[in-house]
Amino acid sequence: MAVDSTQIGKKYSLWINGEAVPGQHGETFPITNPATGDVITHVAKATREDVDQAVMVAREALEKGKWATWPASKRSQILFKIASIMRERLSDLVQLEVLNTGKTVSAAKGQVYQAIEDFELYAGAITTIQGTTKSVPKGFFHYSVKEPVGVCAQIIPWNYPLMMAAWKVAPALAAGCTIILKPASLTPLTAYALAEICHEAGVPKGVLNVITGSGADIGSYLAEHPGVDKVAFTGETSTGKDIMAKASQTLKRVTLELGGKSPNIVFADADLEGAINGSIYGIYYNTGQSCEARSRLLVQEEIYDQFVEQFVEKTKQLRIGDLWNQASHVGSIISREQWEVIDSYVKSAIVEGATVLCGGRTPDGESFAQGYWYEPTVIVDVTSNMKVVQEEIFGPVVVIQKFATEQEAIQLANDSYYGLAAAVWTTDHAKAHRVTSQLKAGVLMVNNPFSTFPGLPFGGYKQSGFGRELATESLDLYLETKSVLSYTGPKPLNPFQL
Ligand code: NAD
């Protein structure tokens, strides 16, 4: 399928109070297709005054509107309707996502499907929101109720734009919250599309607002804004720390989904071919621009040489480019800046004494002369203290290390300040679960490269953040518990005997 960038056509405004608005200063910034480097549209640049406006309407919608007090079944119907409109517009959403991110059509399609399923998941889960009544001394009666946490700022990254928006917007809407969504400046297009769909599905004005602009300016302002009750953030660990510090000034609720440097442990008894195929997917899916990318490959010494040889051979066969071809595996890097970051990590590894077995460059060919492309890269001869082993590269680059024993594999795997995901490949299931029980990570995979399904909790240990998204229990992140204790005697209690 060939898609003309000009199909995007329109200029994008902010979305505040159920309508497209230009932003108070009328400024815009360009949006680029990273596969070609072409500017494809312009987007409104919000000012702090626009943020104030969005927070004000979100608060009004929370306190004076009906969203939070409607029966759960009504909110549920609207969430199902959002999912249904998204299904009708699947092809438009996929096209927008491919044009704006440079990802392959198959990756984009999978992510749009997951975004749809998130809305269906929370549409169903709304009815699980419930309070309790506890056993209390005779004469007392107790109940608790769940209430929406309030006005939520949701700040998301560029790697899975629509999916990350859905992970945050769907549970917040289900819980009855109101929202200011701030997509990454590089990839705001599907966030606008989602806002329009929510509006069409019946989400009242002011409940979901979208603002675009600089993270350091308006993102940061949102994190400290006294009118915001909760910040849900996905992005880099360093940004998460900044947001948490700013949010602490007004003790906002915070959830953080942050970076990763996830290990992928292959034992000598693994199904070799399956482990190689799964490990290749684990790092190069979404061009390695995944928080859960298994970017540290740990291979047991008995199979190390054989594994590395076959891994490199298959990596070289990955189909890169031709984003609209369903059979393509690897897309472009999101921006020139990110390309430079990736390349500088690879160069630093060489300087530190590592060996690059493949990749480490722009692929050959005219179609890669424009845009930002990087060959899938394999680095060996690394030591644990190297930057490429410790730091998140966020690109199609894997480092491979050798281990001798189970204990050494666990020690190497846990030798990171991140703790998002980890995978284990072995035919010994007792060993698989013995090892997973000792890995310090929130999302574990056994003989399987998939890390997320709607309904399964997703989130990190250590500096990969806290709070779990994507599960029904994630609704709790958007709810407060109110506990009510009453006395049922004929006269109120008088403990001071006054
Ligand atoms: P980023 O931290 O640079 O930006 C994320 C968002 O925060 C953007 O919307 C950005 O505009 C905004 N932002 C930037 N500085 C800010 C500030 N000072 N205050 C408030 N907001 C600010 O991250 P990115 O480069 O867009 O995304 C890549 C990162 O996201 C990687 O580290 C990746 O691992 C992480 N990520 C994590 C998960 C997860 O679920 N754990 C999922 C996807 C991506």
Automatic annotation (TrEMBL):
GO molecular function: betaine-aldehyde dehydrogenase (NAD+) activity
Family: Belongs to the aldehyde dehydrogenase family.
InterPro entries per UniProt: Ald_DH/histidinol_DH (IPR016161), Ald_DH_C (IPR016163), Ald_DH_CS_GLU (IPR029510), Ald_DH_N (IPR016162), Aldehyde_DH_dom (IPR015590)
Active site per database record: 257
Top-level taxon of the source organism: Bacteria
Protein name: Aldehyde dehydrogenase (NAD+)/betaine-aldehyde dehydrogenase
Signal peptide extent: none
Pfam families given in the database record: Aldedh (PF00171)
UniProt EC number: 1.2.1.3, 1.2.1.8
Domain Aldehyde dehydrogenase: 24-484
Keyword terms of this UniProt record: Oxidoreductase
